[in-house]
Write a structure and sequence with these properties.
137 residues; alpha+beta; 5 strands; 28% helix; disordered N terminus
Length: 137
């Protein structure tokens, strides 16, 4: 998996942006670390949004019992704004793919492309939890 300073998967995220009205795509880990970003968003914005979106997926997952049982797996969240949407999907163990769009986007086309990208990348999109890197006391 690419590290936070390496955007080798960024070009693959650009594929999702072929849908008209799709704006940006980022790949993030569950702990909010940016893993990859599309070409039309700068690294600082992508890192800030990755941190925020990790909280969105966490909150979304915590409401599973509202749809069945507390252990119902979370798959995706969509947020609607006055002029667009943010789609957030699971992209493997501990990894999430987020795409922002305009308000007139074909939602089905965006989510289809997102899921196809996740399928195509497979294990490259997984992001295991970070290990404690501190030195022992």
């Amino acid at each position: 998996m690419t590290g936070p300073t390496n955007n080798t998967l960024g070009w693959m995220l650009d594929d999702v942006l072929k849908v008209p009205q799709a704006r940006h795509a980022i790949l993030l880990s569950a702990d909010g670390m940016l893993r990859a970003f599309s070409k039309e968003i700068d690294r600082d914005d992508a890192e800030r949004l990755a941190a925020g979106l990790s909280g969105v997926q966490s909150i979304s997952r915590s409401t599973a019992e509202f749809c069945g049982t507390p252990h119902t797996p979370w798959r995706q969240t969509m947020i609607e704004f006055a002029h667009g949407y943010v789609f957030l999907v699971a992209a493997g163990e501990g990894a999430y793919l987020a795409v922002s769009t305009g308000e007139d986007v074909d939602m089905e086309a965006v989510t289809y492309r997102m899921h196809k990208l996740v399928d195509r990348l497979g294990k490259e999109l997984t992001s295991p939890a970070r290990q404690d890197t501190g030195s022992p006391a």
